[in-house]
Specification:
With about 100 residues, this protein is mainly α. Helices cover about 45% and strands about 0% of the residues. The chain is built from five helices and no strands. The longest helix has 14 residues, at about 20-30.
């Protein structure tokens, strides 16, 4: 997928961009930057990290985080009123 391709249209399992989901994802990513959360998320502890947070995330937010579809995640976060959020792709060596 490149930047010129549209995000897949909403379907029963893929809702249209939504502010509520965007807020959940925004909170998840901000929390990811605290302590050793990013290290766990990128390493072998990824599944346990996501599992610990699943009680605080809706099914839609969980699906997006599991899918790794950053364009769709960005669309939901962009629905937050006044948000000019843009996903930045960061490349770093394994920790």
């Amino acid at each position: 997928m490149n930047d010129d391709q549209p995000i897949e249209p909403a379907s029963e399992d893929r809702p249209p961009p939504d502010e509520r989901i965007g807020r959940e994802l925004q909170e998840f990513f901000l929390e990811l930057l605290q302590g050793d959360n990013l290290k766990r998320y990128q390493g072998e502890g990824r599944d346990s990290y996501l599992s610990e947070r699943s009680t605080r995330l809706s099914g839609d937010a969980q699906r997006l985080l599991s899918s790794g579809d950053l364009r769709e995640i960005e669309a939901h976060i962009g629905q937050i009123t006044g948000s000019r959020a843009v996903i930045l792709y960061v490349v770093c060596p394994p920790m």
